[in-house]
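Dear H.,

Thanks for agreeing to be a second pair of eyes. The structure we're designing against is below in token form, covering all 213 positions.
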């Protein structure tokens, strides 16, 4: 996979004008729309849920890259799949003893399954699940709030995952992504990048997106 998949995070969009802001990144060349779902328990923030995902599905042709930062993700796979998620990523830390079942559940709806790890979780902890996954999401900030600084040591997990993965595994990085940190991540082997503030706070969204390739 040579192309870098750019997935702008709507966490940095204007929630009063979501359709407008999603169209902005779609027209600027984004590949996916990254949707952060937070429950206020697994992470100290609350964002959006199933109804908003369902509404977003109606206004964009881009794949919906839904990142579940929630407890008990197995309870919400069906609702988010039915709402139109194309990729569902859940956290290893949310259900370490139930990973295989959740992956199987996601795939039963014909959508891609992703597994994410927080900064303090080592890449080695998830290697056994790589053959079952479509994507691994490496967090380079503590999940919860946008605008945090990139943690370089977290990026060192990328080559560990890449070394043990099939060539078609998507290795996504989320947190503090800009043109400089993007270059570091892609040199390590990442092939998908999530960026929020860097894209949405830019004076030129198209240039910001293209600077990440």
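And this is the sequence the design step returned. I haven't edited it by hand at all.
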């Amino acid at each position: 996979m040579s192309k870098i998949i750019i997935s702008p995070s709507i966490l940095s969009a204007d929630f009063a004008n979501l359709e407008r802001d999603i169209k902005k990144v779609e027209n600027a060349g984004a590949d996916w729309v990254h949707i952060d779902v937070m429950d206020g328990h697994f992470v100290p923030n609350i964002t959006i849920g199933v109804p908003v995902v369902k509404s977003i599905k109606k206004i964009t042709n881009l794949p919906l890259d839904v990142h579940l930062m929630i407890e008990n993700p197995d309870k919400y796979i069906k609702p988010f799949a039915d709402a139109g998620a194309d990729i569902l990523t859940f956290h290893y830390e949310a259900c370490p003893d139930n990973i295989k079942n959740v992956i199987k559940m996601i795939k039963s709806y014909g959508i891609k399954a992703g597994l994410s790890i927080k900064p303090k979780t080592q890449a080695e902890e998830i290697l056994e699940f790589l053959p079952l996954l479509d994507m691994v999401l490496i967090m380079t900030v503590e999940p919860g709030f946008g605008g945090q600084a990139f943690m370089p040591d977290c990026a060192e997990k990328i080559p560990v995952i890449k070394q043990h993965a099939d060539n078609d595994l998507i290795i996504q990085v989320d947190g503090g992504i800009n043109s400089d940190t993007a270059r570091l991540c892609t040199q390590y082997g990442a092939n998908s990048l999530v960026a929020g503030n860097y894209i949405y706070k830019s004076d030129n969204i198209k240039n910001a997106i293209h600077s990440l390739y």
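Two observations from my side: The first strand starts at residue 5 and ends at 8. The mean pLDDT is 95.

Warmly,
E.
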